[in-house]
Amino acid sequence: MITVHDIHKVYGAKTVLRGVDAHFPSRQLTSLIGPNGAGKTTLLMMIARLMEPTSGEVRIEGRAVAGIRVGEYAKRVATLRQAPDFNLRLTVEEVVAFGRFPYSRGVLTREDQRVIDEAIDFLSLQALRHAYLDELSGGQRQMAFLAMTIAQQTDYLLLDEPLNNLDIKHAVQIMRALRRLCDEHARTVILVVHDINFAASYCDHIVAMKEGAVYCAGSVDEVITESRLGELYGLDFEITHSPRGRLCNYFNPEREAK
Amino acid sequence: MMRLVSRHGIWGVVLLLALGFVFLRSGLDFDYIIPRRIARLTAMVIGGICIGWSSITFQTITGNRILTPAIMGYEAVYLLWQALLVLFLGAGSVMLLGSNGNFLLSVLLLLGYSWLIHRWLLRNGKSNVYFLLLIGLVLTMVIGTFTQFVQLKVSPGEFSILQSFSLASFNRAQPQQLLYAGLLVAGVCLVGIRTLPTLDVLSLGRDQAISLGVDYRRNVRLHLALIAALVAISTSLLGPTAFMGIFVANMTYALARTFRHRVTLPLGCVIAIGLFIAAQLLVEHVFNYKTTVGILVNLVCGGYFLLLMVRTRGAS
């Protein structure tokens, strides 16, 4: 389990996070939701150790992450930021192979090759294996990067808006893959997601943030309610239940929310 | 297949160039001409390694293909330092420090400058490349103006000494200096070779590198220090080479067609060495010393740089 304790982040005069306390249960899919500028990505980057909190600490299974060596941390927590872009000509397989760096430091063993193959199979990327990244669509690229983080074989996966700019089919593919990672491979996944319906349909646990603090957190049933979402986003929500799950409708407000 | 041929063919071409350089119209004079030529060739090899290695690693760290350490003001700082030395110590400074003392001091100075750049510009991983480029160009200009100001203050004799520092040349290196430079470069390469896979990861950018378990800050610091040492060696050995790094690095990417530094770094070094030898051959046998290596190299590389800027997104 990852827990964060009284985290503050201040940039100059601007306070981005003001005393965030939250926990992210093991072997569950947790999403961070909330309006733009709520500090979701900042919090995720602190768990990933890509940013330092001004005060407070992040703990992984009770141990403060600041004391763990970067090389060790990469074997426990893998991070994927939105749309990593670099001007390299890489094939999908080469990208996935990077996921083995924390273990092999650049020299792939037979075991590494096996894990790479597994990650590629897991996301059904066999056909694209030797394709160059710059020839792929946004969704396929995202899948390739996800395969890299899977090949990293960490207990925790942190994803910053993995559905950004994807068509609905790729978005569903990615969410289903994450669900399977939790259920079949006992991984813990934490992601920032903007589409409230994806969070409601696929996640176990939701942490909702507003203005640099946790607005509410809990299971999907606890958080996804008309009153809570309405206040979180300042929109009028209608939540309908059907045999295929719940659906949050906020597209045509009936009345102006406060 | 073609790629493999061109990638490995370049080694043969450079070897031929080197042999041509040593023996062409030498009259097989092993007492004077050939030893002198071998000294110049050694300077070119050392300089080539410095330029190839430093430009490629610098571009990897900054994630940009139109930057070179030279543009970041390293050479301007070196020239200002030489000008200040001459201003305060007079023409005797060259004798006073000896070429080795000057050489070592320059290396230390550029290491310090590199540390400052790192502190100011790369803190918090916020390395906006365009900001870096702008700062580098402005610094180069400001420091260049200071240097000119200092040059106005010195006597014509001292000025000519300064002038010789500001042109790339292979004739100034003394055998002892070559030995020190060679040892330093070998040391840098030994340290660098162990980090080649890490460099590959660094080319994915800061966030991905940290996520893959690379101690970003420590590695960037290490490589900036290595780059500073290499630039210091090449600048104090040969003089400024300006755009050459960009040309060498981009030609390497086009030929290598892989991101792996295990391939690109040696290739870059060989291309730089080949370029030096070709320019020096032209100077010695075609232009009959009426032009300098620096001018030829800058002409070719400056043109290439323009082309690179115009052709916004190259295929390589």
Topology, please?
The complex is a heterodimer of chains A (258) and B (316).
Chain A: E1 2-11, E2 14-24, E3 29-33, H1 40-47, E4 55-60, E5 63-64, H2 70-73, E6 77-80, H3 92-98, H4 101-104, H5 110-122, H6 138-151, E7 156-160, H7 168-185, E8 188-192, H8 196-202, E9 205-210, E10 213-219, H9 220-223, H10 226-233, E11 238-242, E12 245-249
Parallel strand pairs in A: 3-8, 3-9, 6-7, 7-8
Antiparallel strand pairs in A: 1-2, 1-4, 4-5, 9-10, 11-12
Chain B: H1 2-23, H2 33-62, H3 74-89, H4 93-121, H5 129-153, H6 156-165, H7 175-193, H8 196-202, H9 206-211, H10 216-238, H11 244-256, H12 261-286, H13 293-310
Question: Keywords, please?
Answer:
heterodimer, A: 258 residues, six-stranded mixed sheet, 10 helices, 12 strands, 28% strand, globular, B: 316 residues, mainly alpha
Protein described:
The complex is a heterodimer of chains A (258) and B (316). With 258 residues, chain A is of the alpha/beta class. Chain A contains ten helices and twelve strands. In chain A, the strands form three sheets. In chain A, strands 6-7-8-3-9-10 form a six-stranded mixed beta sheet, with helices on both faces. Chain A has a four-stranded antiparallel beta sheet with strand order 2-1-4-5, with helices on one face. The two termini of chain A are 36 Å apart. Chain B is mostly helical and 316 residues long. Chain B is 77% helix and 0% strand. Chain B contains 13 helices and no strands. In chain B, helix 2 (33-62) runs antiparallel to helix 10. Chain B is globular, with a radius of gyration of 19 Å. The two termini of chain B are 17 Å apart. The mean pLDDT of chain B is 80. At the A-B interface, helix 2 and strand 6 of A face helix 8 and helix 9 of B.
